[in-house]
């Protein structure tokens, strides 16, 4: 899976541009503020219909423009080509087209174009709220377990009904029991998918991390969101009074978390910033391996400011792991000389200079040059 052509219009400060990326490594370099990260943002917009830099749409659309758009030609694993595009305007209207057909759900984009982002905000995976780690976990489960999405949708519906009842008492006892049962069934199903996924992820993560950083005492564990020794229904019954006081359900998979600990301590409290970055990279690279194994659909990786926080040894180690994924990678940096020689001679590498929103391809090296 790789973008063979990318056209970006009216995204932040970028001038209208069409790129012909390498199917493997793409380096975008230039001064701070030149527009490098905006290229990654455009690809993220194409894959997920939203930005990773802002929850608001207005800053993404270029000043004095009514809408922005991103279109791409996609080379599939079977050699076939697909076209996909997205347009968003200042009124938040969204248009998605895949192979010439209008699409209503952004989930179809996500399924077609698995995307992993490594950027300065990635530290939040370790130091942020459990919600961020749940999103990381569920991204992986979504891409390897086809039944996960329907179970997740059932869970959300049951939670909405139960929380509404907790706040307003609008359900009779029979209806409330029905929604409790649906909540428990969906929760058990989701918990099973998450456990299976984590069991597959852990050895790949450990192997990946070992190539970057020797942290033998680092452990990755999973909290499912309620007492592991009790059925969810029993937990819901016991916490009913407290749930009604708070107006929401306290126990369930919506409270799940991943926990990373080093020698008994919370990993984020012990690791340096550079070590944290390598742990996050190992987690996301491990996910890419699992998606490729389960779906034969390779992720596209967006790596913003790769050299930051890393010395030469770890930069080269990380480049080697990204290279071994055999997938398409877009990397930004200020000084391209730091990364120019980090690749094998048989790896196709395209280099793009970004200056004041204009992008120029400067070099293509490697076997497909």
TrEMBL record:
ATP binds at residues 30-37. It is found in: Cytoplasm. PROSITE patterns: RECF_1 (PS00617), RECF_2 (PS00618). Residues 3-358 form the RecF/RecN/SMC N-terminal domain. GO terms for cellular component: cytoplasm. GO terms for biological process: DNA replication; DNA synthesis involved in DNA repair; double-strand break repair; SOS response. InterPro entries: DNA-binding_RecF, DNA-binding_RecF_CS, P-loop_NTPase, RecF/RecN/SMC_N, RecF_2. Keywords: ATP-binding, Cytoplasm, DNA damage, DNA repair, DNA replication, DNA-binding, Nucleotide-binding, SOS response. One of its GO terms (molecular function) is single-stranded DNA binding. Its main location: cytoplasm. It comes from the Bacteria. Belongs to the RecF family. HAMAP family: RecF. The RecF protein is involved in DNA metabolism; it is required for DNA replication and normal SOS inducibility. RecF binds preferentially to single-stranded, linear DNA. It also seems to bind ATP. This is DNA replication and repair protein RecF. It comes from Pseudomonas fluvialis.
């Amino acid at each position: 899976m790789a973008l063979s052509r990318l056209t970006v219009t009216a995204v932040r400060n970028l001038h209208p541009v069409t790129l012909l990326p390498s199917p493997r490594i793409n380096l975008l370099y230039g001064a701070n503020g030149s527009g490098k990260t905006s290229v990654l943002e455009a690809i993220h917009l194409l894959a997920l219909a939203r930005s990773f830099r802002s929850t608001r749409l207005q800053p993404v659309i270029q000043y004095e423009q009514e809408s922005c758009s991103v279109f791409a030609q996609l080379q599939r694993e079977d050699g076939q080509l697909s076209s996909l595009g997205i347009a968003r305007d200042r009124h938040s209207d969204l248009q998605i087209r895949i192979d010439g057909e209008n699409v209503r759900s952004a989930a179809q984009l996500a399924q077609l174009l698995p995307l992993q982002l490594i950027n300065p905000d990635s530290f939040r995976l370790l130091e942020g709220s459990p919600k961020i780690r749940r999103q990381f976990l569920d991204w992986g489960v979504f891409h390897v377990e086809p039944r996960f999405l329907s179970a997740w949708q059932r869970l959300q519906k049951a939670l909405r009904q139960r929380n509404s009842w907790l706040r307003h008492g609008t359900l009779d006892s029979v209806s409330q029991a029905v929604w409790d049962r649906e909540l428990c069934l969906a929760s058990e199903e989701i918990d099973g998918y998450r456990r299976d996924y984590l069991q597959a992820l852990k050895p790949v993560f450990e192997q990946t991390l070992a190539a970057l950083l020797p942290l033998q005492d680092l452990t990755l564990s999973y909290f499912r969101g309620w007492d592991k020794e009790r059925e969810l229904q029993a937990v819901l019954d016991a916490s009913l009074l407290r749930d009604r006081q708070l107006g929401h359900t306290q126990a369930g998979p919506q409270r799940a978390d991943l926990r990373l600990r080093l020698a008994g301590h919370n990993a984020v409290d012990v690791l340096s910033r550079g070590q944290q970055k390598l742990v996050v990279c190992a987690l996301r690279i491990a996910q890419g391996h699992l998606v490729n194994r389960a779906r034969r659909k390779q992720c596209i990786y967006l790596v913003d400011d790769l050299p930051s926080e890393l010395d030469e040894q770890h930069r080269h180690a990380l480049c080697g792991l990204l290279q071994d994924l055999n997938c398409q990678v877009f990397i930004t940096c200020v000084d391209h000389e730091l990364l120019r020689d980090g690749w094998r001679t048989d790896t196709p590498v395209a280099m793009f200079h970004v200056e004041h929103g204009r992008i120029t391809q400067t070099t293509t090296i490697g076997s497909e040059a």
